[in-house]
Amino acid sequence: PTPSNNIVDTTSQLSSGSWVMTLAECQGKTVDKHLSFQKGEFILVREQKDATWYSGQLNDKIGWFPRNYVRPATEIEIENNKNLTK
Predict the structure, then answer these.
(1) Could you say which of 1, 15, 24, 52 has the lowest number of CB atoms within 10 Å?
(2) For residue range 21-48, what is the model confidence (pLDDT) as tens digits?
């Protein structure tokens, strides 16, 4: 059977330890709970809260971020950013 819509949601497949790239600027609602980021940054996924929120690490900060602001990073993007370590 095929899905009812043609949109493939690749971010729903992410697991802890996956890298994502940010698609747009996002200001976290609260500094201590949410991540703020610029377009083109990389976040290391830690866990999925629900269908719309992930926990992740950006540099030395850990917090929640909305799923619709990111996409999975490609292997080439990860390799080209040597500072990305788990």
Answers:
(1) 1
(2) 999 999 988 878 999 999 999 999 999 9
